[in-house]
């Protein structure tokens, strides 16, 4: 569904330039000329009380004087005038506004007040959308629209460019014109008073001209909206992002190992990976990726074949590929045989395919065509180094002809200067991305491979790992509230472990000793050897103050250690509250590994999870992985796989591997804990002992957010990704007495979803999907099973059939991003039709609509679907039988409730 009124900005029928001017090189003059000279076919009006006309364009004293409707207003006046101008635009019925003016919050506190006045004025006019202020403007080349003060307009293309830097926009434009790279849309977002990056991603997802997005960002203010939009877009098309400010320091000093290790940039890194975004670290990479995205299809995998006329560049390309974890494609025996027929006997007989320095254009062509046909090849890089007998221009033409016939990406590296210039121009004109070196070409290719991998993660069906909590969560909340309300912002090790244990995360039992005698008694009770640790609410890193002693084997050792620990702690931290020590049994695990797991609250993306190599050296080695909750089994496993310590966890040189399934389960349980309790702002488990048999938390520390305890927030508002909505599950009884669980769908349901569709007749499938298909595929299933619970809900009906779980129906509700309107569809398995299941699914989905604040629901069905038409009619839907394409449309307006 389209984003409200952004069409008024990017596809307007009429534009008014407020602050238009005759003064050369002024913003108002430049914008007006760009609109007129750029070929915009709609109406253009100038607004300035000083003139009657500007360059042949009619000029009015105010927007309210323009006699015709205006879709878009481009504001170029001083900042102090803008709030009143926005009000005038609203009164004139203008719903699209681009504010180029500077002098707002980026300049001063007074400017920030002006922004507040603009927002207050815009709120009076439902649906008004604002880009800016303090921006370069917007361009929509396919609409011949240049509503900016940039000096040049880009060509038409398939890449949307979104930037938080106006200066970078001008640099990108200059580069794009030189390289003949086009754009579908070009946006400088400025201060993002209203329209933000998430809005634009959502809008460009519906734009038929946009096949990919290039994003330059400095900061994100609405992490959840950004993640939702980016994940939805990246499922189908790539997003390449450059994030500036990699080394910005956190606004608040870290209070734990997790906080110290999970810095600001590393959280952005984790968020972008989870959203399926490919991140680049060099602006040159951004340009290279833009070229590749604009010209080539995404590779289906990392297997690259390299064709070269010189051994050295082939080795350079191979090194770059392997260094970036790409795969040098293994050429099949058939491919090798065909190459033997076409190439000299001295060719390399493998990948890279060295066609020899005297290769004429025909040899490049033959090699490229043969290699592209290999099923084990996902893409091809052709490298040309100019030698005495080389024809760079002829080779370019030959490669172009081959590329036209291939569905796989083909990229080129034409090395050299003047001799290869014409060939490079031909390749660029033909849409083949061309680079000056093999390394640059490999780098760009691997960014696209990274996107393909990220998208695979978005679509990967996790295996079912049932983690059932037998604990009553309402009762559990009462217990947690008791702990939270004790008044301590930092929970003791014992209290922290109590919360972990409640979520069935194994912990070592910890006793608190206030004296040396208490410590000896505790040690005797738990059994030697024992570990002693300082017990203080003011000390985060116990080892830093000499507050830990291990492997204490008898009472004398314990008594001595007690005194030494308190003495050292007092010396290092004289103002700290020292309340004694904790005592716990030392676990002897020769094949165990120490990890650290934890969570921290990020100001943008909410709670973030971390796992890494643990112990006292955790922060030194920084072998860690971050992820956003909630975790699935596959996401938890991927976190572990990304660690340098992963080979050690699997087992190394005769040492057994750890219990990975148990470790994955503990990570998932931790994600449930921090998702359920927004009061937890930081959590550390260090070390987490992982053995071949079990996983045990040896130490734990939880930091609370006192404000969240005093002022509770909406459930899951502290997360960037909406967890599985258990609250929408309910049990119903069908007419025949069958008990059915109605619940939201989840990725693990894919196998049962395939079975559900297979159980439906061709007629039922046609009535639901309104087209015929032979069989379901994984790609089809991902569209229905992998959903963003902030945007849509699929309620499945699950029951037991012959002792096995089965899905027997599904109702699907898809809302627009503003949660104003929703589309609904329902499918019931043939054997279960006529038992009231469709009605139960529909009523449940309508209840969800009320909770979401949906204003209207629409359902489309085939004219022959009498049963569904009667069901909707019975529920007060307006039935429209006049709809085109042999369909009936049912609509219903709902009473709006607070969410």
Automatic annotation (TrEMBL):
An example Gene Ontology molecular-function term: acetate-CoA ligase (ADP-forming) activity
Please name the InterPro entries in this protein's record. Answer: Acyl-CoA_Synth/Transferase (IPR051538), Acyl_CoA_acyltransferase (IPR016181), ATP-grasp (IPR011761), ATP_grasp_subdomain_1 (IPR013815), CoA-bd (IPR003781), GNAT_dom (IPR000182), Ligase_CoA_dom (IPR043938), NAD(P)-bd_dom_sf (IPR036291)
Q: What class of enzyme is it?
A: ligase
Q: Give the family from UniProt.
A: In the N-terminal section; belongs to the acetate CoA ligase alpha subunit family.
Write the Enzyme Commission number(s) for this entry.
6.2.1.5
N-acetyltransferase domain boundaries: 740-895
Q: By what name is this protein known? A: Succinyl-CoA ligase [ADP-forming] subunit alpha
Write the record's keywords in alphabetical order, separated by commas. Answer: ATP-binding, Ligase, Nucleotide-binding
Cite the source lineage. Bacteria, Pseudomonadati, Planctomycetota, Planctomycetia, Pirellulales
Indicate yes or no for the key word Lipoprotein.
Answer: no
Q: Outline the extent of the ATP-grasp domain.
A: 497-533
Q: Where in this chain does the entry annotate a coiled-coil region?
A: none
């Amino acid at each position: 569904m389209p984003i409200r009124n952004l069409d008024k900005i990017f596809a307007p029928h009429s534009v008014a330039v407020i602050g238009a001017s005759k003064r050369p090189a002024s913003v108002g003059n430049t914008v007006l000329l760009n609109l007129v000279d750029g070929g915009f076919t709609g109406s253009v009006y100038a607004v300035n009380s000083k003139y009657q006309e500007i360059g042949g364009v009619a000029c009015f004293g105010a927007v309210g004087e323009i006699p015709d409707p205006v879709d878009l207003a481009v504001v170029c006046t001083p900042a102090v005038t803008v709030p009143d101008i926005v009000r005038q635009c609203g009164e004139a019925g203008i719903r699209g506004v681009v504010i180029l003016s500077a002098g707002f919050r980026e300049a001063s506190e007074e400017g920030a007040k002006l922004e507040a006045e603009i927002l207050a004025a815009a709120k009076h006019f439902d649906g008004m959308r604002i880009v800016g202020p303090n921006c370069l403007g917007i361009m929509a080349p396919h609409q011949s629209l240049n509503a900016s003060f940039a000096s040049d307009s880009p060509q038409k293309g398939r890449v949307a460019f979104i930037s938080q830097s106006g200066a970078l926009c001008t640099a990108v434009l200059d580069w794009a014109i030189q390289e003949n790279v086009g754009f579908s849309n070009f946006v400088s977002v400025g201060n993002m008073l209203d329209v933000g990056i998430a809005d634009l991603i959502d809008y460009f997802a519906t734009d038929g001209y946009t096949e990919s997005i290039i994003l330059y960002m400095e900061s994100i203010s609405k992490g959840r909206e950004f993640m939702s939009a980016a994940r939805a877009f990246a499922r189908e098309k790539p997003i390449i992002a450059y994030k500036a400010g990699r080394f910005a320091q956190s606004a608040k000093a870290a209070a734990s190992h997790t906080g110290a290790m999970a810095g600001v940039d590393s959280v952005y890194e984790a968020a972008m990976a989870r959203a399926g975004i490919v991140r680049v670290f060099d602006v040159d990479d951004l340009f290279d990726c833009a070229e590749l995205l604009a010209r080539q299809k995404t590779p289906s995998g990392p297997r690259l074949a390299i064709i070269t006329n010189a051994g050295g560049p082939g080795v350079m390309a191979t090194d770059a590929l392997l260094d970036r974890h790409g795969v040098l494609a293994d050429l099949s025996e058939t491919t090798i045989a065909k190459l033997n027929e076409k190439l000299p006997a001295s060719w390399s007989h493998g990948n890279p395919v060295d066609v020899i320095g005297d290769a004429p254009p025909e040899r490049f062509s033959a090699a490229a065509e043969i290699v592209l046909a290999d099923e084990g090849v996902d893409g091809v890089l052709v490298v040309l180094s100019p030698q005495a007998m080389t024809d760079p221009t002829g080779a370019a033409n030959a490669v172009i002809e081959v590329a036209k016939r291939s569905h796989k990406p083909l990229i080129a590296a034409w090395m050299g200067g003047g001799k290869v210039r014409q060939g490079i121009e031909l390749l660029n004109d033909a849409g083949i991305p061309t680079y000056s070196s093999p390394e640059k070409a490999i780098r760009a290719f691997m960014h696209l491979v990274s996107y393909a991998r990220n998208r695979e993660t978005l679509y990967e069906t996790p295996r079912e790992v049932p983690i059932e909590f037998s604990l009553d969560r309402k009762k559990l909340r009462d217990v947690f509230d008791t702990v939270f309300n004790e008044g301590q912002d930092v929970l003791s090790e014992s209290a922290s472990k109590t919360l972990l244990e409640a979520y069935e995360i194994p912990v070592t039992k910890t006793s608190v000793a206030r004296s040396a005698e208490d410590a000896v008694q505790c040690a005797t009770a738990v059994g030697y050897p024992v570990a002693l640790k300082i017990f203080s609410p003011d000390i985060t890193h116990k080892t830093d103050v000499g507050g830990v002693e291990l492997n204490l084997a008898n009472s004398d050792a314990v008594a001595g250690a007690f005194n030494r620990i308190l003495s050292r702690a007092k010396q290092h931290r004289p103002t700290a509250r020292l309340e004694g020590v904790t005592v716990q049994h030392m676990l002897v695990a020769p094949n165990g590994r120490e990890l650290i797991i934890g969570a921290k609250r990020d100001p943008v993306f909410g709670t973030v999870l971390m796992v890494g190599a643990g112990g006292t050296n955790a922060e030194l080695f920084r072998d860690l992985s971050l992820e956003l909750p909630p975790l699935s089994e596959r996401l938890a496993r991927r976190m572990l796989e990304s660690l340098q310590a992963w080979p050690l966890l699997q087992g190394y040189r005769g040492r057994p591997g750890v219990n990975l399934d148990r470790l994955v389960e503990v990570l998932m349980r931790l994600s449930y804990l921090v998702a359920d309790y927004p009061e937890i702002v930081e959590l550390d488990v260090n070390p987490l002992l992982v053995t071949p048999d079990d996983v045990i938390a040896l130490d734990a520390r939880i930091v609370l957010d006192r404000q969240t305890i005093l002022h509770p927030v909406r459930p899951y508002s502290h997360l960037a990704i909406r967890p599985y909505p258990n609250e929408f599950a309910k049990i119903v009884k069908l007419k025949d007495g069958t008990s059915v669980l109605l619940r939201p769908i989840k990725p693990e349901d894919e196998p049962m979803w395939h079975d559900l569709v297979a159980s439906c007749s061709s007629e039922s499938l046609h009535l639901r999907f309104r087209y015929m298909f032979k069989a379901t595929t994984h790609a089809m299933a991902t569209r229905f099973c992998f959903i963003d619970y902030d945007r849509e809900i699929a309620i499945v009906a699950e029951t037991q059939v012959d002792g096995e779980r089965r899905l027997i129906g599904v109702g699907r509700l898809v809302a627009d991003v503003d949660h104003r309107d929703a589309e609904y569809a329902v499918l019931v398995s043939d054997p279960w039709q006529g038992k009231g299941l469709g009605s139960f699914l529909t009523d449940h989905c309508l209840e969800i609509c009320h909770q979401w604040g949906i204003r209207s629901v629409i359902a489309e069905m085939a004219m022959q679907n009498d049963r569904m038409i009667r069901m909707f009619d019975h529920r007060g839907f307006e039935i429209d039988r006049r709809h085109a394409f042999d369909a009936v449309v049912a609509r219903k307006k709902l009473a709006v409730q607070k969410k």
